[in-house]
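Case study 2.
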Amino acid sequence: MTHDATRRGWLRGGGYFRKFVASFVGLVVLVLAVNASLETFVVYRDATDGVVIAHSEKAEATARRIEQALTEIERQIGSATRASTTTIEQRRSDYELLLQQVPSIDRLIQLDSTGMELLRATRQEVVVRSGIDYSIDPRYKDAKGQVIWWSPIYFNGRAPYVAVAIAHSGQNAGSTVAEISLKFLENFFERSQVGADSEAYVVDPSGRLLSTSKSNYSLGASLSALPQVAAMLGQNREGVSTGEDDSQQPVLVGAAVVAQRNWYVFFQQPLSIALEPVYTLLYRTLWLICLGIVLSVLAGMLLARRLVTPIRALQVGARQLEVSNFGYRIDVRTGDEIGELAEQFNRMADQLQGSYARLEQKVAERTRDLAQSIRELKALEEIGRALASSLDLNAVLRTIVTRAVKLSQAEAGAIYSYDAATNAFRLAEPDGLDQTFVDAVHATRVAFDASVLGGAARTRGPISIPDLAKSPNYPLKELTLSSGFNSLLIVPLATQDEVFGALVLQRRSKGEFPLRTIELIQTFAHQSVLAMHNAGLFQTIEQKGRELATASAHKSQFFANMSHELRTPLNAVLGYSELLADGIYGAMPEKAAEILERIQANGKHLLGLINDVLDLSKIEAGQLTLALDEYSVESVVQSVVAATGSLAEAKGIKVTTTVAADLPIARGDERRLTQVLLNLVSNAIKFTDAGSVDIGAKAVEGEFNISVRDTGPGIPPTDHQKIFEEFQQVDSSSTRAKGGTGLGLSISRRLVQMHGGRIDLESELGVGSTFTIIVPIRVDEQREPA
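Prediction:
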């Protein structure tokens, strides 16, 4: 057929040609349009959702930071209302320090219980007792009866403020009022945090603007007309994601609530900026669709003329390949590329047929390998759990060798431990070996330097012996061969710095252990070394603990015995010195009497020290037993006052008592409680140079509260726990000058703990100290001291 005839044939068949081209073009356009629509939708959704989520997270984070800032301000204001501040000067000092520490506080006012101003402090001035009456001011009237009160937002000029009133502790103690400038909110809206294209702001519960990242907003202006603000104010907080800006342009919004004050934080970005990626995608898609139409028209025309029929044949062949019918052959004889493609399809079918068979074989092999790997990993995981579950070294070694034999599919195995003292290995744990072999190996020491076990330990690597009969340096060669084992795998149990031993796996058959098995046992050996190390450490720690407990018991028993032995001759010395002082052996010279008086004083001091050490030793040794019986707290207090009267009188200290009436009869060890109270009162008199010591006693909810308050120098907070420890005193020259052993308070605390009670301490430098004994009224059994 000539070219003109062919052309006329295509013209006659133009309906099919046009349908093919139109369908092809339509398909291309449809695919591009659908793809563009889906991509546009995804990009639009991701862009808007991403902006909303990001702004919501920023708003939530900013709200939390504002809450933390307000809480910190409230805490710092509260610290200035402490009950220990009793004078105007102290309060003034606290206020001035607070103004320095908290820049957002503009003014602090102290009001008394009637609303009169006692103190007003700003950074410019301090006014004391101005006489201003705040009794009708909301900061007093509305805050009265509340521990903490926050005022509504108010504006001083264009600056927003809020007032906080915090009541002082104690009845009719007044309150502190702080005026806080909310200008510090600007710190949360710096441009680096908000973003170049975004804006952020905070409004109060009525929608008034408190702070913003844009300078064109007016603070105090009402933003309640904005949809996003109105939604938040109307409690529709879950659905706030869009809104409008001040020029009524749509914006994407993220909002959060400052829960403490019911303020609202907004982060927003213009919708037009957020959708810039969508616009760019739409422009690019339009160009792609236009280009696709042109190319599809040309390609459709070409394919309609040359490819429709051969492609159908190829399609049929491809479908046969798809259903794995590799015996099907495509019959296309066009003599051009389509014909060559058909031949390629046929050759590909032949190759696929062969490859499919090989692939099935490889899949089966890989399936077996993967199954084996899974079994090995599962075994290692089970082994790891088994090793970690025990800290008994023998149990760990038994687990190691048993699991290793099973993991390597060997018939037997053994762990040889290394003894650094003898530089040799010895059998530690066997598995699968008969008793004759075990007994023989137990009697053998394998030298480190002259054996293959030592070689594996030196190189830190495994050694495989495929034929034991040909190995010249295995020390147990003959014994192992006689037991029927012909191949070995030796894996060292060692770290880079220490050798623990060696793991030996034995098989009856000859041949190398598989490389995979060797690598697996190496991994297992690393786990085993760690478990052995941990078990060894546990045994060492356990042994040291027992040794320390034994040493402590011996120490306590020694102190108890020695204190008793020292007290007996010392009592004799004091007795004879008392007889000499009484003149039973005749009058003594004045100088000798002075020396005898010093002997008696030092002897009594030494006897007190010995008694304290004896009491402490008995407590630690568990030999001190309370004599529980009924007693009167009032009698205890009076006996202590009588015993310390001379000491107080000598120092000019007044000792007073405040004992509640009708105290119940108590049960406990009266002598030991008297010892505790006597120690506290004696210390109070000893460390008080001027003033008084007051002893108080009352019953509160089944307990006695017996307090000893002095007007001494006080005790630093850092020493409150220290002074209750053995042989510890407050570290100052004045304290050391008072004498003492540092045991009295420690013994007193333990005696009170044996009653099920405690000793509390409150002290302030320069003011004095108060020790409070708190014990149950009825003690039925002795407790162990802490």
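The mean pLDDT is 78.
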